[in-house]
Amino acid sequence: MDVVAACRAFVAVSGHGSFTSGAAAAGIPQSVASRRIAALEEHFGARLFDRSSRAVRLTPFGRDMLPSARRLVDLADAMADDAERARLRPLRVAVPEICPPPRLAALVVAARRQRIHLEVRPAGPQERERLCRTLEVGAGIVAVPEAAATWRVPLGLAARTPIPAPTVFLETLRSGRARTQARRRILIQPEDDVAHLRDPLTRAGQSAGLAPSQVTVAPSLVDAAAAALGSPDLLLCSRQQAEDFALHWRPLADPWLLRGYDVAAGVREDLDQLRSVLYADIAHCLGAADHPSPTEGSPPGSPSTGDPT
């Protein structure tokens, strides 16, 4: 027996003094209301209503039980309201600040279609880790090495003028002996100022003979892009970012760099929702390809998946 449903019928009938009117108020057929109340009476072992006359009156037992029945119905309604609010609770997620606002808005809309209510908080890689660690957000899209990544974004170099070669070799940025040509810098934006990206690039630059000042971290993405747009300097970025700034992009020949992202969350359900339900939408925000092309998702010089050899 559904005690809550039976008590709801009991309260409705007692309040209207009629099985017909009470059943209508409860949104159930009169026969269903009668069966539920009869089951409740059998459960308690006593009559709730005096049915000896045409009017429906509470028995002494019924009057004593009515306050408890009302409390039970009110509590059930309150639980239903709490459950709805819990389903609609916002999931605060720290996301890379490089994600374009239109794509973030599309992510929020896609999440709502899945009954997931996101509140996104753009931040840099170190700040996202701190927000997750201090539980200021429920989850975060954090920077991780490629091997541990759920999403991968190939990086390359972008310049204001077309780059003739299909890939960029760091040796070509080395100054000649005459040093009459200005050294072209590689600008690392804050999103890529993480050890697993910055350090391999710095070491490769040293091995290629670049001056230490030729690989430098910019204060912001805007500063880095402005420098690339106004000088021969090169911006380390994704293809999507290069297109957003109208820069010409080419992948690096060596080292092969990819941004790696994964989810950090305190609740397993949130982790699963972001990794599975919203996987493609997050990939779109990050500029990650689900099926990378040979020139964008695999190291330069490696065979493509469609190569018969």
Automatic annotation (TrEMBL):
<dbReference type="GO" id="GO:0003677">
    <property type="term" value="F:DNA binding"/>
</dbReference>
<feature type="compositionally biased region" description="Low complexity">
    <location>
        <begin position="292"/>
        <end position="309"/>
    </location>
</feature>
<dbReference type="InterPro" id="IPR000847">
    <property type="entry name" value="LysR_HTH_N"/>
</dbReference>
<comment type="similarity">
    <text>Belongs to the LysR transcriptional regulatory family.</text>
</comment>
<feature type="region of interest" description="Disordered">
    <location>
        <begin position="289"/>
        <end position="309"/>
    </location>
</feature>
<protein>
    <submittedName>
        <fullName>DNA-binding transcriptional regulator, LysR family</fullName>
    </submittedName>
</protein>
<dbReference type="Pfam" id="PF00126">
    <property type="entry name" value="HTH_1"/>
</dbReference>
<feature type="domain" description="HTH lysR-type">
    <location>
        <begin position="1"/>
        <end position="59"/>
    </location>
</feature>
<keyword id="KW-0805">Transcription regulation</keyword>
<dbReference type="GO" id="GO:0032993">
    <property type="term" value="C:protein-DNA complex"/>
</dbReference>
<dbReference type="InterPro" id="IPR036390">
    <property type="entry name" value="WH_DNA-bd_sf"/>
</dbReference>
<keyword id="KW-0238">DNA-binding</keyword>
<keyword id="KW-0804">Transcription</keyword>
<dbReference type="GO" id="GO:0003700">
    <property type="term" value="F:DNA-binding transcription factor activity"/>
</dbReference>
<dbReference type="InterPro" id="IPR036388">
    <property type="entry name" value="WH-like_DNA-bd_sf"/>
</dbReference>
